[in-house]
Write a structure and sequence with these properties.
CATH topology of the largest domain: DNA Cyclobutane Dipyrimidine Photolyase, subunit A, domain 3
Largest sheet: 6 strands, parallel
CATH superfamily of the largest domain: DNA Cyclobutane Dipyrimidine Photolyase, subunit A, domain 3
C-alpha cells in the first residue's frame, strides 16, 4: 500500500490517452483508478446509457489490466472513504461543469482530507473561458465560434506511464456492446469529415461520425479530434457542443426551464395519447416515426431528424419541450445534458441564439428533401417497405396497412402554434 499516492477518479474521461488529470495523478507515483456508480445518476439514466457505460467501463478496466476499482454509493461518501483506505495524498479529476457535477465535487472536496485536484475538462475550451471584449459571455453562437477559434486549445497530451495499484472492487456492470477508447479512436481515424458539409443532413446516407457517444463518455477528447481537422462544418459542431456547455454552466436552470422567460407563459398541452404516439413512432408522419423508431432500437438518432421530431412535438403536438428532452435523456446513448437541453430549446425557440419560433419544420417536406428516395424511412418502418421511392413519405395516398394515419393536420397545427406564440408576444 505504500506505493499508492494518488487516486484517479474517472467520470466523463474513460480513457488513458490525452487525459491531463491522469498525467497529474501518475506524476505522484502509484495510481488507484476509481469509478463510482452514483445511484442518483444511474437511476436517472435509461437502459441505453447504462448499457453503454457498462461496456465502456469494462473496456477501460481491460486497458488497465483489470485494475479499475468500481464502488457504488454517494460519491461524497465513497471517494473520501477510498482515499482514506489507500492513504491517498491527492484525488485527481477532470473538472465537471454540469450543475449536479459541480455540486457533487464541492461536497466531495469538503469531505476529503487531501486535495481534490482538477486538471482539464471534457472540452477543448472549458466553459467560462470565452468572453467578449467587455468581459461578458457570449449569448449568440456565431461570435462565440469566432472567439473559440481565436482562443484555440492545447494539443493532445501523451499517454501517461501509470503504475496501477489494486484494491477491492465491486463487480462491473454487464455491458456486451462495442465501446471504449480503442473503438472511439478507430472510429475517428476511419471517418472522413471532408464530406460532412454536404452530407450531414442526409440520414439515408448514414454518413455522420456518431462521435457524440464517445465524446459523452470521454472515450476520446475533442482536442484529439480537432488535431489536424480541416472541416469547418465539423469544427462548428464541436464548438456548438462547447457553447451549450458554457450556457448550462452559467444558467443551471436551463436544463429544464427556458432561457427566454417569456416562454414560461406559452400555452402547452399536457402529454397524453399524442405524446405516447410520438414516443412510439406512430404519428403517421414517416420521417418523424422513423427517427423515433431508430432511437428506440439503437439509442441514437440522426441530428437532422432530431430537429424534425423535436419541432413536431413542440409545434405540431404543442407539448412542452421538457417532456421531449426527458424522453431523449432516457433513450439516447449520448444523453449529454447540456447538448440535449439547449438543442431542444433551440428548436423550441426559447433558448440562446434559438431558431425563430415561427420556423416550423414540415415533417413531410423535410423527409422529401433529406431522404429523397425514402431509404431512411423504409429502413425503420417495415410497414412502408412496399412503397417505392418518395411515396414512402406520404403513405396516406397509397395502401399502407398497419401504418397509422396522421395524428394531426400539419397546416392547422402550424397555425395554432403561431397563435400561441403571438399570445406571449402581446
Amino acid at each position: 500500500m505504500s506505493l499508492v499516492t494518488a487516486l484517479m477518479w474517472f467520470r466523463r474521461d474513460l480513457r488513458l490517452t490525452d487525459n491531463p488529470a491522469l498525467l497529474d495523478a501518475a506524476a505522484s507515483g502509484g495510481v488507484l483508478g476509481l469509478f463510482v456508480l452514483d445511484p442518483l445518476l444511474w437511476g436517472r439514466s435509461g437502459d441505453p446509457r447504462r448499457e453503454y457505460l457498462a461496456a465502456s467501463l469494462r473496456s477501460l478496466s481491460d486497458s488497465m489490466g483489470g485494475r479499475l476499482v468500481v464502488r457504488r454509493g454517494d460519491p461524497a461518501v465513497v471517494v473520501p472513504a477510498v482515499a482514506e483506505e489507500i492513504g491517498a495524498s491527492s484525488v485527481h479529476i477532470s473538472a465537471d461543469y454540469a450543475p449536479y457535477g459541480q455540486k457533487r465535487d464541492e461536497e466531495v472536496e469538503a469531505a476529503l482530507r487531501c486535495p481534490l485536484v482538477r486538471t482539464g475538462s471534457p472540452y477543448a475550451v472549458a466553459p467560462g473561458r470565452i468572453r467578449n471584449q467587455q468581459g461578458r459571455p457570449y449569448q449568440v453562437f456565431t461570435p462565440y465560434f469566432r472567439a473559440w477559434l481565436a482562443h484555440g486549445w492545447r494539443p493532445p497530451v501523451a499517454a501517461a506511464d501509470v503504475t496501477w495499484v489494486e484494491a477491492a472492487s465491486e463487480k462491473l456492470p454487464v455491458g456486451s456492446i462495442e465501446a471504449g477508447e480503442a473503438v472511439a479512436l478507430e472510429r475517428w481515424r476511419s471517418y472522413d469529415p471532408a464530406g460532412y458539409e454536404d452530407e450531414r443532413d442526409r440520414p439515408d446516407l448514414d454518413s455522420t461520425s456518431r462521435m457524440s457517444i464517445p465524446l459523452k463518455y470521454g472515450e476520446i477528447h475533442p482536442r484529439t479530434m480537432l488535431a489536424g481537422l480541416e472541416s469547418e462544418a465539423y469544427r462548428r459542431e464541436l464548438a456548438w457542443r462547447e457553447f451549450c456547455a458554457d450556457l448550462l454552466a452559467r444558467h443551471p436552470h436551463a436544463a429544464w426551464q427556458p432561457l427566454r422567460p417569456e416562454f414560461e407563459r406559452m400555452q402547452y398541452d399536457e402529454p397524453g395519447e399524442l405524446f405516447d404516439a410520438w414516443c412510439a413512432g406512430r404519428t403517421g408522419f414517416p420521417f418523424v416515426d422513423a427517427g423515433m423508431r431508430q432511437l428506440a432500437e439503437t439509442g441514437f438518432m440522426h441530428n437532422r431528424v432530431r430537429m424534425v421530431v423535436a419541432s413536431f412535438l413542440v409545434k405540431d403536438l404543442h407539448v412542452h419541450w421538457k417532456y421531449g428532452a426527458r424522453w431523449f435523456m432516457r433513450s439516447l446513448r449520448d444523453g449529454d445534458l447540456a447538448s440535449n437541453a439547449l438543442n431542444w430549446q433551440w428548436v423550441a425557440g426559447c433558448g440562446a441564439d434559438a431558431a425563430p419560433y415561427f420556423r416550423i419544420f414540415n415533417p413531410v417536406g423535410q423527409g422529401l428533401k433529406f431522404d429523397p428516395d425514402g431509404a431512411y424511412v423504409r429502413r425503420w418502418i417495415p410497414e412502408l417497405r412496399h412503397l417505392d421511392g418518395k411515396t414512402a413519405h406520404e403513405p396516406w395516398k397509397y395502401d399502407a396497412p398497419g401504418y397509422p394515419t396522421p395524428v394531426v393536420d400539419h397546416a392547422e397545427a402550424r397555425r395554432e402554434a403561431l397563435r400561441r406564440y403571438d399570445a406571449i408576444r402581446s
